[in-house]
């Protein structure tokens, strides 16, 4: 069968002829793309991804985020706290009028020996303080304190046993520095009670193994509760808790912390009566509605021979006519008596909040106090030295 020959017309042949006015141009090629700048492979691709600038970490953004977090933390930790659960202010001034005394350093002079606290905000605590001497069963009454301090003023010397910083929240925010002081004349009594609680009566000192056991007991939640409960209930040891805030706070904030500790530890028939409820109410009234406590101001809680409680606060320099602010820091702290109460259970539970149990105000303070106790019990009764920290 003969092959078919394509049929061309004259018009068709004309289109195949080259024309002189037709110019051919080279088609531009797609530029070569280096693998360095190639696109990201598909999510299901098995080939490894190529490194590109977009995959490199952005250090500038990371640094900016870090600085923002630091600034936010600083703003939270430095602003003045506001307690939503605190009782409303009664309109009373921050420092109410009361009996004014002077809590002085050692020798009532300028050369006050100091102990480092571990924080730059409140760098030092005095090793020795002097509190007004008061008598026995009347220690909780304001009238037991004279109107002022003079040459004839009787005082008792108190020695620092241990100190630490109270910290709260996960950020370990510093709230205040707390120190426990014991009357110098009662150091022997404290030593006797601790040895008695450790190995029983009859012993005059503790040997190395007994010391180690006592130290372990005082750092244990249950063991420390048993020892300090016995020592504080026995009485006969005057002591004081000195508190200096590291940031602005208020009386309601401090009071609520102590009340939570009292409620946590007030268990048993001893604390079920109406008289105990009345004592708690009296404690609330001493510290309630008194306004703010500025950073660096001193708050003192004293415990007498029979457990009676007294509370003082450092007065403002402007509240004393003609007072030189330098005198407050070099020769003593002008203190105002806030009040007192005689029920020893209140002071005992407040002290236990710093010394005993699983949940205490400052573990650092408890450890420091235990180290001071170890210095006491290793010496024979009656020969204890007062400088223990």
Structure commentary:
The protein has helices at residues 10-14, 59-78, 187-199, 208-218, 221-234, 251-265, 274-287, 325-330, 344-355, 363-377, and strands at 100-105, 114-116, 124-126, 128-132, 155-168, 173-183, 239-245, 249-250, 292-293, 299-303, 309-314, 333-341. The chain has 389 residues and is an alpha+beta fold. The protein has one domain (100-377): Chalcone isomerase (3-Layer(bba) Sandwich), CATH 3.50.70.10. The strands form three sheets. An eight-stranded antiparallel beta barrel has the order 1-4-5-6-7-10-11-12.
Q: What keywords describe this structure?
A:
Chalcone isomerase, two-stranded antiparallel sheet, 12 strands, 19% strand, 389 residues, eight-stranded antiparallel β-barrel, alpha+beta
CATH class: Alpha Beta
Strand elements, count: 12
User: Tell me about the biggest sheet?
Assistant: 8 strands, antiparallel, barrel
* Secondary-structure-derived class: alpha+beta
Give the CA-based shape.
globular
Distance between the termini: 125 Å
Averaged pLDDT, please? 74
The Cα radius of gyration reads 38 Å
* Helicity level: 25-40%
Number of helices: 10
CATH topology: Chalcone isomerase
């Amino acid at each position: 069968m003969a092959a078919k020959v394509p049929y061309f017309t004259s018009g068709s042949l004309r289109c195949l002829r080259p024309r002189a006015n037709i110019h051919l141009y080279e088609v531009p090629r797609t530029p070569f793309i280096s693998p360095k700048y190639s696109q990201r492979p598909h999510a299901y691709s098995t080939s490894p991804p190529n490194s590109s600038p977009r995959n490199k970490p952005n250090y500038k953004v990371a640094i900016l985020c870090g600085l923002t977090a630091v600034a936010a933390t600083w703003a939270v930790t430095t602003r003045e706290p506001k307690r939503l659960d605190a009782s409303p202010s009664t309109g009373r001034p921050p420092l109410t009028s009361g009996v004014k005394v002077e809590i002085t350093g050692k020798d009532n002079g300028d050369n006050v020996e100091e102990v480092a606290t571990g924080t730059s905000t409140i760098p030092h605590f005095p090793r020795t303080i002097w509190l007004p001497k008061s008598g026995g069963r009347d220690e909780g009454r304001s009238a037991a304190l004279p109107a002022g301090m003079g040459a004839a003023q009787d005082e008792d010397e108190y020695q620092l046993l241990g100190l630490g910083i109270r910290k709260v929240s996960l950020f370990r925010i510093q709230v205040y520095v707390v120190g426990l002081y014991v009357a110098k004349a009662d150091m022997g009594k404290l030593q006797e009670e601790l040895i008695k609680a450790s190995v029983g009566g009859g012993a005059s000192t503790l040997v190395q193994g007994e010391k180690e056991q006592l130290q372990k007991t005082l750092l244990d939640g249950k063991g420390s509760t048993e020892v300090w409960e016995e020592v504080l209930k026995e009485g006969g040891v005057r002591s004081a808790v000195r508190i200096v805030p590291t940031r602005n706070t208020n009386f309601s904030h401090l009071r609520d912390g102590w009340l939570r500790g009292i409620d946590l530890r007030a268990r048993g028939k001893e604390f079920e009566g109406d008289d105990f409820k009345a004592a708690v109410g009296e404690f609330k009234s001493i510290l309630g509605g008194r306004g703010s406590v500025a950073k660096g101001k001193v708050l003192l809680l004293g415990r007498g021979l029979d457990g009676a409680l007294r509370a003082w606060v450092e007065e403002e320099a402007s509240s004393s006519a003609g007072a030189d602010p330098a005198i407050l820091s070099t020769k003593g702290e002008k203190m105002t008596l806030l009040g007192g109460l005689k029920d020893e259970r209140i002071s005992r539970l407040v002290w236990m909040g710093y010394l005993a149990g699983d949940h205490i105000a400052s573990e650092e303070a408890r450890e420091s106090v235990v180290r001071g106790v170890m210095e006491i019990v290793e010496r024979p009764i009656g020969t204890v030295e007062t400088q223990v920290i």
